[in-house]
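Wed. Picked up where I left off yesterday with ECSIT-like protein. The coffee machine is broken again, so keeping this brief.
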Amino acid sequence: MLTILVSLSSRFPRPLVSKIRPLINLQTYSTHSTNPTKSLSPISFSDHQTPKRPYPDHYLSVREEPMVDQPTILETLTCYANDWKRAMDFFNWVEAECGFKHTTETYNHMIDILGKFFEFDRAWQLLDKMPERDHTTFRVMFKRYAAAHLVQEAISTFDKLGEFNLKDETSFLNLVDALCEFKHVIEAEELCLKKDKNFNEKIAGFVMGTKVYNMILRGWLKMGWWSKCREFWEQMDKDGIIKDLYSYSIYMDIQCKSGKPWKAVKLYKEMKKKGIKLDVVAYNTVIRAIGVLEGVDVAVHLGREMLELGCEPNVVTYNTIIKLLCENGRVLEAYKVLDKMFRRGCAPNAITYHCIFRYLEKPNEILALLDRMIESGVRPTMDTYVLLIRKFGRWSFLRPIFIVWKKMEDDGLSPNEFAYNGLIDALVEKGMIDMARKYDEEMLAKGLSAKLRPELVRGECDDG
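Structure written out below (tokens, as returned):
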């Protein structure tokens, strides 16, 4: 007997299926059906329409209460983050068929997915339908416009916020942060610090203080323009800006990433001299710097000092130590730190496992660690799958790639362009052109950017 849950499992992410399962009463397929040989079709959101009721009433009965709740909706939308049409269909379907009333948070998540694929008109249509918008709604819009390099559109969105009673300092800081996050620091600096009377009138009352300067400093860090970072750090003193814990943390990170860990350590000592109490973020940066400069054992000693001073290490602290150990070829010790995290009640995250994955050299060990990761309750991200697909691809190992791909699909994640490109590159390398072309076409159908590969271009002879 075919069951609906089997079909659901093949099409829906696990979070949704696990919620629907207890709410469905399965019934035996009637042998008096007009077409008893026809199998049940899985629910599919492929035509960008709100799906009809997927099964006739005599197949199942559904209780009247909503099938799913907000966490389930958010998790399912995350699974569809790389397929906006499917996400939109699911978003509409769950409202029409399950009676779910979308919240500001679910609207924000859907708008974020649309913005990722430059579907800004659709995003605004949703935004206009929302019963209530918040700062997060427009932070999402700023972020997606900045990511698409549509700086003027981001600024114009801020100008419209008076209509929603959200044109305030928080929104302005969100705008500046989004511009800096996506490397539009020049525009952000001009927006905040250029002596433009017209603009100053628009943002009257907003103080261009330490917060704004820290955002711009972090923006230059993102750009990797080290000389500009130093120049701006000095400019903060000239402009009378008080440097706080976050200013120092950002500049220590700049020194580490620009290959000058000794300067980061010097800043750490300067902070202690000034009486600035370090938080876990600042300690994590200096632990990394000392680890590179003086070795992982000294970094571990600093971690103990941090603990004695009442600053509890977090997952980033452990990740930093694990990464340092792996970089020094001490992978077995890294595993011991991983075990210690569980004992100390600090749950590892996907990045913890990434640190180890990068330094393992045997496919069986990698797949075993992936299984351990999943069994421990840490859900692999799309970055996890891409990392492993690329790693196996460099080694020309197809079988492990397909094992990873299957786990990704079983987890309900829709592959992004990096996953597709990693798989296609491996197939082309192995001469499996027809299969590579199939995935290339599937990728393009989803609106994802494919690499130009001469091997996959069909010639006239291919059609004959």
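Quick read: Strands lie at 24-26, 60-62.
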